[in-house]
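User: Working on a comparison across species. This one is Two-component system response regulator from Streptomyces ardesiacus. Can you predict its structure so I can line it up against the others?
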Amino acid sequence: MVQKAKILLVDDRPENLLALEAILSALDQTLVRASSGEEALKALLTDDFAVILLDVQMPGMDGFETAAHIKRRERTRDIPIIFLTAINHGPHHTFRGYAAGAVDYISKPFDPWVLRAKVSVFVELYMKNCQLREQAALLRLQLEGNGKAEAGEAKEPAGLLAELSARLAAVEEQAEALSKQLGDESTDAAAVATAAHLERKLTGLRRALDALEPGSPGGQAAVN
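Assistant: Here's the predicted structure for Two-component system response regulator from Streptomyces ardesiacus:
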């Protein structure tokens, strides 16, 4: 069973956090609260998040500074950040948000449907990446097991490859559908780029699997 994605909500005002939870509850994912930049950074030390909704105007460490810390960390630099702000200071203010690493910048009051749709895109991309990592880990462990196990104790290489190929095909189909959806809806460039990166990873894994097939160049040696 695929675990739920975690979404980090960062705002110093409890009523704003409550409103975000009400809007995003329909996505049926795990919503994590943080009432300050410091609290958000602490949560990011131990948990993986699909996307961060980050308020800009906060006392102490504001959203820009918090984002800068997030992007400097190896563990968290690739997590998408959506800035939320109640004040529009013009293009310069918006540019500062993108320069800090945001993938989107939404002014309050925002349309709940739009916000939920944007967050759902990044949740889907996160899920696809998790599936890809699981498939790669399974392939690595199973091949290592076949090499070390005694005869008859491990699954036949051909059967193993067929099973992994079928699982990968399911992920490929979902990723292709998501990329088409993003292209049709002209979604944010950052989301489209992330989807394209995912498809390139899937293509690489598919080539690796094909190379292990008996009869392919080097395939027989790889599975024996």
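For your comparison, note: Residues 85 and 107 are 5 Å apart (CA to CA).

User: Helpful, thanks.
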